[in-house]
Amino acid sequence: MKSEDIPFEGGPMDGRVLSVALGPTGHPPKTYRIPVPDPDGGPATVLVYRRVPRGHSRRLGLIQGWKYLHDPDDSSGGGLRWPWSKPAGAPGAARTATPDDAGPDDANE
């Protein structure tokens, strides 16, 4: 499996470089979660880092590499997002049909 040395910025991992396994597309994961055990035996704290471009080429604007930035308030929820799914905050995302909704055939009754 291929891996790449990727720098981390911000948070407790600031300035460190870790070897991160690449996915089937040749890119590192979009989020990198690091569980940190509690010294008192409590629940582990999870550090979340987001993948961002390290830089772009001048001529074509291609991404030169990746780095991870610390994301203290992780809003992704950690679940998978499919391309055909509605956004989590969309107004009609959790709407269900109610008896008050009139369909086109119900209008003439």
Automatic annotation (TrEMBL):
Residues 87-101 have a biased composition (Low complexity). Residues 1-42, 70-109 are annotated as: Disordered. This is Uncharacterized protein. It comes from Streptomyces monashensis.
